[in-house]
Amino acid sequence: MKHLTSPKLTPGVHCLNIRHKGMFVTSGPDPDEFAFYDKYDSTAYWCVETSRGFGPDGAPVRPDCCSGERDCCKH
Amino acid sequence: MANKYSWPEKPALLGTSVKRLDGPDKVTGRAKYTYDINRPGMLYGKMVRSPLPHARVVSIDLSAAEKAPGVKAVLAHVAVGAQVMYQGDPVAAVAADTEERALDAARMIRVRYEALPHFANVEQAMATDAPAVFPGGNTRQGATEETGDLVAGFAKAAHIVEATYATHVITHVCLETHGCVCEWDGDKLTAWISTQAVIQSAQQFAQALGIPQANVHTIMQYMGGGFGSKFGPDSQGIICAKLAKLAKAPVKLMLDRKEEHLDTGNRPSATAHIRAGITADGMLTAFDGQSWGTGGAGATSGFPLPYIYNFPTRKRTHKDVYINAGQQRAMRAPGHPQGCFLTEILMDELADTIKMDPVAFRVKNLPPAAPNAMWAEYFARGAKAFGWDKRHATGDPTPGPIKTGMGVSAHRWGGAGQGSQAHVDIMSDGGIVVKCGTQDIGTGTRTIVGMVAAETFGLPLSAIKVEIGDSLLPFSGGSGGSTTAASAMPAIRVTSVDALEALFAKVAPALGTAPENLVAEGGRIFIKGTPAKGLSWKDACKLIGTEPISVNGKWAQGLSGSGTSGVQFAEASVDIETGIVRVTRILAIQDCGLIVDKLTAESQAYGGVIAAINFALFEDRILDRVTGQMVNPNMEMYLLAGMSDVPKIDIMLNNMPERGVIGIGEPPTVSTASAIANAVRNATGATIRSLPLHPHKVLAALEQEKAGGTN
């Protein structure tokens, strides 16, 4: 499902339950974005299983910590 | 390259000011928001939330609540032993036959907690002796961004400014709180939900509840604000659905204002210690910034820095700091108001080191001009329109306690959209129904969907029936990132053009011509160049027959674009005896590609500016530094602008039809606060490097200025 993919997340690496707003917005590319400022991450992530920013194990939901080492990770 | 779908060169409706289709429904109360939905036999849900910022749940006793009068369902949302990570973290819930009984029963749920160490602010979390509260660490160091030789950049500088700048946490304060009404029919769920993503909410309900997505129907016809915070059911939505299942009855669960402040998102704080250099003739040479911020418990806090202006050598590091407070969510231009403020106050300080006009200084250091980077032109137009030549140097020399000043700031945003689909029916009675699974989050989407169809069919807006806000309609994305118009309008245009062509095919034989010779204008279909040889719309549609023209279509390249730029000017007066700031004028110059409805586009800009006045002068989520509890989770002590606080706001929209439709929801809210802060600096001569500009902070800055200077 196209709207559930994200350049911030890698299939097979990140948990299938991680979500962020960008996955639900059909945004087009903004090729010049980083001509005006450097990269940054303001993304709010949540777990679709718990519907909050913490996974079933109580730890935060973020790409750096939802990548397979947690028991709750779904692949 | 122009094609049959291209926007008309001489539109009849597009770009004009058209009142909202649903305006009368809203002002008369006919419009049904989620809060207004009432179902037969409906129950009311209430949630029990953690009063502590960090604790382990020791026990949950639901028994008293289960026996309470009118109670139909009770559930524990977390397991015993689980940790709650912030005040307001959901723990349990109840549904009863009245709201009052639900509230009473919620109070009967006994939860015992073991309090754990917590952080109420970033200083506590960043302290070297801070306890480990968050798995993996209390902070997270981001990547370092570096361009050019920073040492060489500073070596070229004739002047260096070094200071710390900061913005604060604010909450979304949606007038309609988050929540939904859930009703089951067997294993099928219908949810009326206050959401910016009606189709995507169905997907999230399905996955969280473990049911097929095809069994979920979500509806959102009207919404009282979301600003980025309403992209799914959240815990209250899933709890509402579970309560309804348990009780075998519909349940309404709308959050109250306190819950709204605690658990539905916020704009992260941002702080940066910056060192920046310029040459004697006003060219930026170097930027070195270390930034940090908090998005609450375990969440990110990134923002763009430096913002827009061209620092040829620069280095920036950022650190996310976790505290025990509700997590951030996207909030109207995520990161941009913070990065804009931190950069733009610095820019005025730098300009003052060489006594250069702030507008001229900014123009000198802009990236090259482009259709999506029009700042130089906007600075010039704005300066003329605003009377910038009357601006005095920093510090109003006028005698007396009231000082006035002017400030300026610039911003940009992406705003590209794609991917929407649409469906158009033309009936033999002349009726037209346009369907799209987008949603109107208060921006006027319903109206512009109708306008694009009406423009294509050569009819008045009143001839179009618009159906949106329902997960059963053709796919469209959630409304975020200012993408809705750019995503949905091309789909409406393409589908309407295809439907019109199908109608032309039916009508052409009757007019003795080929379909490609026909046009639709002014309520008639006629042979191009010969208006007399035609039929009224109604008579033409009689040729359709019993089977309506029914066409599906989707977004196509070339009808929308990305990248907007804008500039804002502010005038403010400051009472140096009380510290009270009043904004007297704002001028917002903004482009958004092809303007669809001038009125609703201007409304977006007005709303963005007013929201940013709140950010600059009023709003502030205050956590008690000891207990970690929010001390102003209401609408009394969490301040917002009243009518008398809203200044004269002038909007100058730059119509750029050749760029196609681009979103405007976010950009106008980015630079207002910076322009206001710079106006306050210009008025008082004192630099306030953090928001909000509350009176006590203004007075402290004035005292500091007297004692030796803030600059």
Q: Could you please describe the fold and organization of this structure?
A:
- The complex is a heterodimer of chains A (75) and B (711).
- By secondary structure, chain A is mostly loops.
- Chain A has one domain.
- Chain A is 0% helix and 8% strand.
- Chain A has no helices and 2 strands.
- Chain A is elongated, with a radius of gyration of 13 Å.
- The mean pLDDT of chain A is 86.
- Chain B is of the alpha+beta class.
- Chain B folds into 3 domains: 23-31 and 417-554, 2-Layer Sandwich (Aldehyde Oxidoreductase, domain 4), CATH 3.30.365; 34-116 and 178-254, 2-Layer Sandwich (Aldehyde Oxidoreductase, domain 4); 266-415 and 561-707, Aldehyde oxidase/xanthine dehydrogenase, molybdopterin binding domain (Aldehyde Oxidoreductase, domain 4), CATH 3.30.365.10.
- Chain B contains 17 helices and 29 strands.
- In chain B, the strands form 7 sheets. In chain B, strands 3-5-1-14-11-12-13 form a 7-stranded mixed β-sheet, with helices on both faces.
- The two termini of chain B are 53 Å apart.
- The interface between A and B is large, with 43 and 79 residues.
Features of the shown structure:
heterodimer, A: 75 residues, little secondary structure, two-stranded antiparallel sheet, 0% helix, elongated, B: 711 residues, alpha+beta, Aldehyde Oxidoreductase, domain 4, seven-stranded mixed β-sheet, six-stranded mixed β-sheet, globular
What's the structural blueprint in terms of helices and strands?
The complex is a heterodimer of chains A (75) and B (711).
Chain A: E1 18-20, E2 45-47
Antiparallel strand pairs in A: 1-2
Chain B: H1 23-28, E1 43-49, E2 55-61, H2 63-66, E3 71-76, E4 83-84, E5 90-96, H3 99-108, E6 110-115, H4 122-126, E7 139-141, E8 145-147, H5 150-156, E9 159-167, E10 170-171, E11 179-185, E12 188-193, H6 198-209, E13 216-219, H7 234-247, E14 251-254, H8 257-263, E15 266-267, E16 270-278, E17 284-293, E18 313-321, H9 336-353, H10 358-364, H11 375-386, E19 402-413, E20 421-426, E21 432-435, H12 445-457, E22 464-467, H13 484-511, E23 518-521, E24 524-527, E25 530-536, H14 537-541, E26 549-554, E27 564-575, E28 581-591, H15 598-618, E29 648-654, H16 672-684, H17 695-707
Parallel strand pairs in B: 1-14, 12-13, 17-18, 21-22, 28-29
Antiparallel strand pairs in B: 1-5, 2-4, 2-6, 3-5, 7-18, 8-18, 9-16, 10-15, 11-12, 11-14, 16-17, 19-27, 20-21, 20-26, 23-24, 24-25, 27-28
Helix pairs in contact in B: 9-16, 12-13, 15-16
